[in-house]
Structure formats: structure tokens, C-alpha cells
Amino acid sequence: MHGSNPIRQPVKGDGTTLDVVNIFPTIQGEGPFAGQPAVFIRLSGCNLACDFCDTEFEVFNSMHIDTIVEEIVALAGEHKHLVVITGGEPLRQPIELLCQTLLERGLTVQIETNGTLYRPLDERVHIVCSPKTTTGRYARVREDLLPHIDALKFVVAADHALYRDIQEVGQSDYGIPVYVQPMDEHDDARNHANRRYAATIAEENGYHLSLQLHKILGIA
Predict the structure, then answer these.
(1) DSSP 8-state class, residue 143
(2) What is the tens place of the pLDDT at every residue in 77-115?
């Protein structure tokens, strides 16, 4: 969206219907579950507008949770036990019921959030937080969310003033693993520099390097 999306506020509701962009099988390309076959459900809307975001999340349909779960289970088959709920910003919508239902089906559930919103989710849900900044300084992640985060994923770029540094957002207090991901700027030279920069940061600080395997493989 490259920052052109409308900023949407959190939605109230019982979670029986959600606004869904798409549901698709793929390989999780980022973070602690990288390399695992997964089913992604992309939810609509975000409460931020990041200038590097290349994801379409404003074309969507309202779907009943029964239909959502049926489609996810069908796509999961026998081998995809991981379900990734992403966006946009998934915590913008009431996903508690969806998470609980998927867990009861024996699936592993991971969400990807920017860390600015909170909903009380089952403790079995894996939360990967990717903080964003518009000022050059990261705000501390919400105190109600921090104890539940499994990993923090920082996007970095060699020549983007807002995304050069890994800053303290609460990871030290809770011993949260840090993943460093090079920004995709859709330019070969810039992307090469970003990968080298991310690798250097990871090596110097003992962080994990996350390389967006799905883009390397050319899949969704």
C-alpha cells in the first residue's frame, strides 16, 4: 500500500464475521516459523500507514467464521498445521473466536501484529510483533501485549532514516528473541544493501536473520 491506505480504527464485535482479504496456502517466509507450510488468512485494514508496505489489504469480503474455518481446514489438509493470521493489522478485528476455534481443531495459530493494539487471546496463540515507527524512535510495545509476544521482528534498511536501528521496545525486560528483516524496497541495489546491513546487525548483536523466504521462492 506504500502508506496510501486509509487508517482504520479497531472494530468491536463478537468475531462471528470478519473482513477477509484472502485465505491461501503457502510457506511461512518470516520469523520463528520460517520454512513451515502454512495457511495464511489476511484480514483487512490497518491502523498504521507505512511507506514501505507492499501488501494489499483494502480489497476484502465479510465472511462468517464457519466459512473461514471450513476453508482453512480444507487448505490445511494433512500437512499444514500452522495458520498465520495477518493483515493489515489482525488485532484490529475481533479474532478471539477465530483463534479459539482453530486451536480446538488442533492447529497452531500465529498472528503478526505491529504491537499497537491488544486483544486477550488464548495463551497458545503465538504472537510475532513487528514494531513500526514514523518518528525515528520506536515506542515501547504495549505493556498488556509484551508478556505474550514470542518474537520481535524489526524491518531494517541501510539508507532509510526511520529503519536503520534496532531499539529497545521491551524485549530486554521479557527476554523476547529479536529477528532482523531487510526492507524490500523493490530495487535490486537497495535490497542487496539492506540484506548485507541486516546480516551485519544480526551478527553483531546475536539476533536472528529473517530473509522473507516466500519472496526468494517467488510465492505468495
Answers:
(1) T
(2) 999 999 999 999 999 999 999 999 999 999 999 999 999
Would you place residue 220 in the very low, low, confident or very high pLDDT band (cuts 50, 70, 90)?
confident
CB count in 10 Å sphere of residue 168: 9
Distances (CA, A) of 127 to 29, 30, 78, 147, 149: 15, 13, 24, 10, 5
Q: Which domains does the chain have, with CATH numbers?
A: 17-217 (3.20.20.70)
Strand order, beta sheet including 208-209 = 61-64, 17-27, 37-43, 82-86, 108-113, 126-129, 149-156, 178-182, 208-209
Is the whole-model pTM more than 0.70? Answer: yes
Tell me how far apart the alpha carbons of residues 89 and 190 are, in angstroms, rounded to a whole number: 27
Q: What is the overall mean pLDDT for the chain? A: 95
Q: How far is CA 81 from CA 8, 135, 146, in A?
A: 31, 38, 25
The letter for the amino acid at 185 is E
Burial (CB < 10 A; 0-12, 13-18, 19+), residue 9, is: exposed
- Ramachandran quadrant class, 117 (left: phi over 0; alpha: psi -120 to 50; beta: rest): beta
Beta bridge partner(s), residue 178:
152
